[in-house]
Input
Amino acid sequence: MTEVIDGNAVAADIRDGIADRVETLADAGVKPGLATVLMSEDPASETYVSMKQRDCEEVDMKGIHVELDPEAPASELYETIDELNDDDGVHGILVQLPLPDHVDEREVLRRIRPEKDVDGFHPENVGRLVAGNARFKPCTPHGIQRLFAAHDIETEGADAVVVGRSDIVGKPMANLLIQKAPQGNATVTVCHSRTDDLAARTRQADIVIAAAGMPEFIDGSMLQEGATVIDVGINRVESEDGSGTELVGDVEYDSAVEVAGAITPVPGGVGPMTRAMLLYNTLKAASLQTGVDIDLP
Ligand code: GUN
Output
């Protein structure tokens, strides 16, 4: 029987642990604060940011939300970041990506104080992660590691294929999987749009992480029997019966579930874990900035 990995359930457990530690911080007079910045009218980005704000409420963190006109000059975004950097009530800052074309994303990520960079995208934090000394692990790969831990999926010695080389998922995922650490010690191949004969590589894999941003790109014929399949994709497509739109992953679920040993659904797999780990990073940021110890797992 294929194990369907319930990301909602694992994320709910993690949020419970976070809520307990938020109380410990409250006893010490600290309320963790997460600022989200949206400079986009993309409906998906709007939804993600509002869910992140709702998550803050659920664990009694302070949510601060700033919306900027997508046509505004980049300087407005820089000024917003500078103000949030200087605000002691803000422990974590997340600028929702992608940004409008006229804004230099690298400059934006460099501008966020590394101690408040709860995405883990600042070059200092990227460097620390690669060196095996992460301050903030990027939320999606960290969440995937937590799914492995919760479901006893062995990564040590496993052949893992990461499909996608983004800075947000593919690169940090590969880096975490090769580390000499729990939920690491895997042998990792990173595939991408220029990879020759992708199926030959994914068929060798004990673990496939699909993060290419392409709807139903990986199907059951590309998988080894019993493989663990982690689907990071969230793609809105026309539904087959023409009645509207639906969400699909990067994996063609119906064929993959027949072959996989374990698989994450879309929605309800990786997505809730990404959001839970953002709360985790915000909690960690608040602890590091205030010096209040909260015994983080
Ligand atoms: N856009 C899509 N995923 C992410 C993420 O994890 N962080 C930010 N800041 N933007 C995103």
The longest strand covers residues 33-38.
